[in-house]
Amino acid sequence: MALAHVLGFPRIGAQRELKFAQESFWQGSSDEAALRATGAALRARHWRAQADAGLDFVTVGDFAWYDQVLGTLALLGAIPRRFGFDPKQLTLADYFTLARGSKQHFAMEMTKWFDTNYHYLVPEWSADVRFDGGVDWLLDEIAEARALGHRVKVALVGPLTLLYQGKIKSGLAHKLDLLPQVVAGYRQLLQRLQLAGIESVQIDEPILALELDHAWRDAFAPTYAQLTPNAPPLLLTTYFGEVSEHAALLQALPVAGVHLDLVRGADQLDGFVSGWPQDKVLSLGVVDGRNLWRTDLDRVLGQLAPLQAKLGDRLWLGSSCSLLHVPVDLAHEDKLDEELKSWLAFATQKLAEIVALKQALNGNAAAVEAQFAASRAAQASRRTSTRIHNPLVQKRLAAVTAGDAQRAAAFDTRIAKQQAKWQLPAFPTTTIGSFPQTSEIRQARAAYKRGEIGHLDYLDKMRNEIRLVVQKQEELGLDVLVHGEPERNDMVEYFGEQLWGYAFTANGWVQSYGSRCVKPPIIYGDVYRPEAMTVGWSQFAQTLTAKPMKGMLTGPVTMLQWSFVRDDQPRETTALQIALALRDEVCDLERASIGMIQIDEPAFREGLPLKARDWPHYLDWAVRAFKISAAGVGDETQIHTHMCYSEFNDILPWIAAMDADVITIETSRSDMELLDGFGQFAYPNDIGPGVYDIHSPRVPQVDEMERLLRKARGVIPDERLWVNPDCGLKTRGWPETYEALENMVLAAKRLRQSVEQERNVA
């Protein structure tokens, strides 16, 4: 009999209950007991959903107060020693200080979890890091689930993935130098789980989907040989890609079973089934954990049926990866078009899909025939719907030439014209785009959407916010201004709402990091821009100042990556459709006398395939999409882009090929380490390395930012160096924002004076 499970469930709650409880705690409006009560209620609700759907286990250990990697470090006691916290006595306030920083401490570095828009806190590896045990939160959650009558499967980040995803800070030549200590910490934890009577542990090793070198690949066999004695049965979980090159290794590992992602690695199954050991479970991720299209149950059942007779109860069915990456429950969407809604499945609906497949395989097809019929109807509807295809979009895309992706002149020519036009000081200061989204702004947007205020009232409120932002930037002395984006709910959703081919949910929230949640649009059809989206706002803002006002757009790759994308055509085709829509907007901004235009691409690195052999194809079309969006303007129009919270050094030639006049990047949490690669590569265009971390409430002092700028000068020529925060300021409050920008502007002024003095002496 096949078994059913999931690799994880969204932790935030269908109405973002965890987000609001976290933020209340951070603001001092509630205490730790209230926050813990919210977490317990959400866990109980989500376990009940899994049990009621008919899963054979509920997954425990997928809940995290901020991030599952940080949670694992807290569990093992491997938190950075620079904070001075006792891992065994860690409070939630301490835990959040690790993630968010404080006046005394820089926050831990944050970056993307593989190729997702989910962020994790990067482990800090040094020779003195300890794995002697930390908090007992996982054991407490296991007790909670058992008290509610559930059969428990524990989920853990695997030891090699944890080690690989960290960063060496001091005292180590290689991350694997820490492996003995890591293994000892995991052995201690697994022994505790065995004593607790846990019958299955899901141990996630997604690094197997990467192209690992021999040292990492060869570490798996001895690591798991040491872990499996005195441990519960281990299900080694792979996801985000195919792992067929490791088939022999995975078959030989002394684990109870292996999980494969058949959504992103559909062709790998045959290589595993042949010769699969008689004593191992084979868990198959057949329901997509990263997209929200309804599963074609007939197709998947046809794929699985031949395995049932061979594997019996050693066949497990599940999600391709954790359902963390999709919204919680489609039942809360009462305003979606019924046809489109019939095509979708959120996390709760995906539980039912997994169980329907299990029932059909186990001989109970009649009990789930209605679900199979609904799946069949949804697939037929998507194939035949007239709303998906737009002949005009397809004709325009077919007519695109290589010349459409090239600026008229080279960068050296363009930048000379731009400098002559703008006459900016050395080390020009700017921000990334958004300013604090106050409760008044959010309330006005919500009232407008509900029809409680008219268009003119809404326009007046937003213009007043823009006036305030421009006034404050003028007071601060920033050199290049932005309008602050008060009218924008989200950098992708705002644009998607104005493009054909996009649809939106009311409660389709997904966690990005901590309490930060996004509501990704759904790209269901060909993308087209019916009219200008931002021109009026930027044009109005420019009338308020003599300084340059940047137009702000989200780039085509980020619009793609941060949406739920249609799966009936190549992703690159959809990206190029978006690029053409944005090209029209860029040209309209230029015609409206907006001479600086920022096209943000924070997801550019995120879209990179996990295997290097697949990089060239992606990078070619991703660069082409960006250039098509940007290349329709004249030489004097300055194109900016922004990238954040990713490692860029391995794709610098392609970033340079994007040919943006100015790139701003996140660098403060890494103490400018991310900038080193740009210097070694001799990146040719202007760069603005972020000098302070906007994801922390901590306000850095002038000296700190000046020190970072001096480090940047060692990498970037003075005439190419800009000064800016790491990212947009949307999530910050006005007092800290004003103080931080005031310090930033002063740091830039000090540097100008210092450099001028150096030149005079020379």
UniProtKB/TrEMBL annotation:
Q: Name one GO biological process term.
A: methylation
Could you say which enzyme class this protein belongs to?
transferase
Task: Give the matching InterPro entries.
Answer: Cbl-indep_Met_Synth_N, Cobalamin-indep_Met_synthase, Met_Synth_C/arc, UROD/MetE-like_sf
State one molecular function term (GO): 5-methyltetrahydropteroyltriglutamate-homocysteine S-methyltransferase activity
What are the binding positions for L-homocysteine in this chain?
Answer: I432, G433, S434, E485, D600
Residues that, per the record, bind Zn(2+): H642, C644, E666, C727
For the ligand (5-methyltetrahydropteroyltri-L-glutamate), the binding residues are R16, E17, L18, K19, K112, R516, C517, W562, E606
EC number, UniProt record:
2.1.1.14
Tree of life domain: Bacteria
Tell me its family: Belongs to the vitamin-B12 independent methionine synthase family.
**What does the UniProt function comment say about this protein?**
Catalyzes the transfer of a methyl group from 5-methyltetrahydrofolate to homocysteine resulting in methionine formation.
Instruction: Report the protein name in the record.
Output: 5-methyltetrahydropteroyltriglutamate--homocysteine methyltransferase
Classification lineage? Bacteria, Pseudomonadati, Pseudomonadota, Betaproteobacteria, Burkholderiales
**Gene name, please?**
metE
